[in-house]
Prior knowledge:
By secondary structure, chain A is an alpha+beta fold. Chain A has helices at 13-26, 41-45, 65-74, 77-85; strands spanning 2-5, 33-36, 50-55, 58-63. Chain B folds into 2 domains: 2-70, no CATH class; 90-161, no CATH class. Chain B is globular, with a radius of gyration of 17 Å. Chain B has helices spanning 40-48, 72-78, 95-109, 117-130, 148-161, and strands at 2-11, 14-24, 29-33, 53-62, 65-66, 81-83, 90-94, 141-142.
Amino acid sequence: MAILDETDSGLDIDALKIVAGGVNEFRSKDRAIVLVTHYQRLLDYIVPDYVHVLSDGKIVKSGGKELALELEEKGYDWILEGADAA
Amino acid sequence: MLSIKNLKASVDGKQILKGLDLEIKAGEVHAIMGPNGSGKSTLANIIAGRNGYTVDSGEIIYEGKDLTEMEPEIRAREGIFLAFQYPVEIPGVNNVYLLKAAMNAIRKHRGEAELDAFEFLALVKEKMKVVNMKEDLLNRAVNEGFSGGENKRNEIIQMALL
C-alpha cells in the first residue's frame, strides 16, 4: 500500500502529469493507494474511488470522486458547518 | 487491506487525530482532503510509523497485523510505503544503492530471492522511463540537488519498486 503525502506540492503541470502517470501505472487490484492532497487538481489525473474530508482529526464526509469537484467549487465551509451542526 | 478504528494520535503532546475511522480494500484509491491543520499529514505519517507521532488509542490493522507497535522499517517490509511531502536529501548515499538495498530487504522479508545488480538495474530503468526521469539521477546522492519535480519522480520510482 502506498501513501502519497501531498506529492503534488511543488510540481508544475507537466511534472504533475508525469508523476500522476507513474501513480496510475502502479494501480492494480493487489495494491491500495492513499492520496493526501490539498487540491482537486491532482485528482483530475489520478481519479480516486473514494474521497474523504478530514476536519479537526476526524473524517467528516466521505463520497466518490464527485465530492472532490464539489469541494473545489464550494470550499470546505459547507461541510464543516454541517459537521458542527451534527 | 487497511482498517483504522477510532484512532486518536498526537504530535508533540497535542492530539491531532481525534477518533478517525477508515477502511481501505486492495485495489482502491482513496483521496484524503481537508483544510490546513485538519490532520492529513499526521494520518499519513502515523500509518508509516514516523518518529514523533504517537498513537494514543484505537487500532491500525494492515493485512491482519497490528501496525501500532511495529517499527517503521518493519512496516515498510510489510508493504507500507510513504512518499514524503518534502523528500529529504541524503548526501553521500548513492540513489541506486539505496533503492537496491531497500528493495532487497523487502524481498528477503517476503522470502523472495534478492536481485543481482543486472536484474535490478533493468527493473529500475524500466520504472524511470515511466516517469521520464534522467538516468544520471541514479548515480547521484539521494535527492541531493534534485529539482522539486525530480525528487517527486524519485519518490514515485521508490513507490514502484518497494
